[in-house]
Amino acid sequence: WLKKGVDAVTDNATVFSSEDAFVTLGVGKNMVSSIRHWCTVARLIKADPHQRRRLVPTEFGKSIFNDKNGFDPYLEDPATLWLIHWQITTNINQATTWYWAFNVLRKNQFVSTTFTEELYKWAQQQKESMKPVSDNTLQRDVNCFIRTYCQSRHTAAVVEESFDSPLVELNLIAELPEGNGYEFQRGEKETLPVEIFTATLVAFWDLCSFERDTLPFSDLMYAPLSPGRIFRLDEDTMTAYLENLAQLTNEALQYDETAGLKQVYRRKNLNLMKLLERHYE
Questions:
Q1: DSSP string spanning the chain?
Q2: Hey, which end of the chain has fewer CB within 10 Å, N or C?
Q3: pTM above 0.85, yes or no
Q4: Crossing angle of helices 194-208 and 78-89, rounded to 10°
Q5: Residue 19 CB coordination number (10 Å)
Q6: Largest distance between two CA atoms of the chain
Q7: Cβ–Cβ < 8 Å for 194, 227
């Protein structure tokens, strides 16, 4: 579905505004809106800055889904799912529930009702820094959020809103026995390559601490937008990734534990796309 959306705006920038978009895309009318929504939320397409009714692929969207030289046009590599997950969960305005769950919520286990209540309270406190969110939107988002990552035991199909969500494969959330809520799965992520981890580390560093040449282990583990939070890593897994940085980056990034001080040092800036190319080449 995501590729279908990127391909569609590549061919016709106004496709989602046309009355026959469902014919062009070969899906139902509701799915047209869903494809546009998720491609936008995952930062695969965006509004043309010069013409608001037109949509264009982002550099990220083109780099993944381009038929000629895209990294993974048909989503065959789990690494791409981690990238899409990262793009969604760092998008505070267009994926508020996803952002909050991975960057703000500190509980490892949750039930839908208290999850929604706590999310609503937080959203009310953020009125000045983000778009307002209605109660109905939040409840719908919470249900969709859960189905995005966790296929219910009670149904063989994932709801249409989450596109038969490929992100279920990441095993980030599991339903607890007897249907008593849900649990984030912290720890090792076998399908998360070090190149993808490092690219998100670089993006986090550039966004939050660009002027600094060192980054504490604790920030990488627990700060909002950090790889530790976005990928739900534990400290042992984080350490294992960090110990590979020097080799991967030709010592541009180095992890060091001296006198109990655990930090990553940056010797020179790195290009995020080059890191992605390293994985996909």
A1: -HHHHHHHHHH-TTGGGSTTHHHHHTS-HHHHHHHHHHHHHTTSEEEETTEEEEEEE-HHHHHHH-TTT-S-TT--SHHHHHHHHHHHHT-TTTSHHHHHHHHT---SEE-HHHHHHHHHHHHHHTTTTS----HHHHHHHHHHHHHHH---TT-SS--GGGTS-GGGGG--EEEPGGG--EEE--S--TT--HHHHHHHHHHHHHHH-TT-SEEEHHHHHHSTT-HHHHTT--HHHHHHHHTTHHHHTTTSEEEEEETTEEEEEESS---HHHHHHHHH-
A2: C
A3: yes
A4: 20
A5: 7
A6: 65
A7: no
- Chain-centroid distance, C-alpha 208: 17
Q: Could you identify the residue written with the tokens 């026995």?
A: 177
b/e 60-88 (16+ beta carbons within 10 angstroms → b): bbbbbbbeeebbbbebebbbbbbbbbbbb
Q: Does residue 161 carry a pLDDT above 60? A: no
Q: Which two tokens stand for residue 183?
A: 């649990």
How large is the angle between the packed helices 194-208 and 272-280, nearest 10 degrees? 170
Q: Two tokens at 227? A: 């790889």
Q: Radius of gyration over alpha carbons of the chain, in Å?
A: 19
**What is the tens place of the pLDDT at every residue in 2-44?**
888 888 778 778 777 777 777 666 677 778 788 888 999 999 9
Q: Which are the contacts of 118, defined by CB distance < 8 A and separation ≥ 6?
A: 105
Compute the distance between CA of residue 148 and CA of residue 162 in angstroms, rounded to an integer.
5
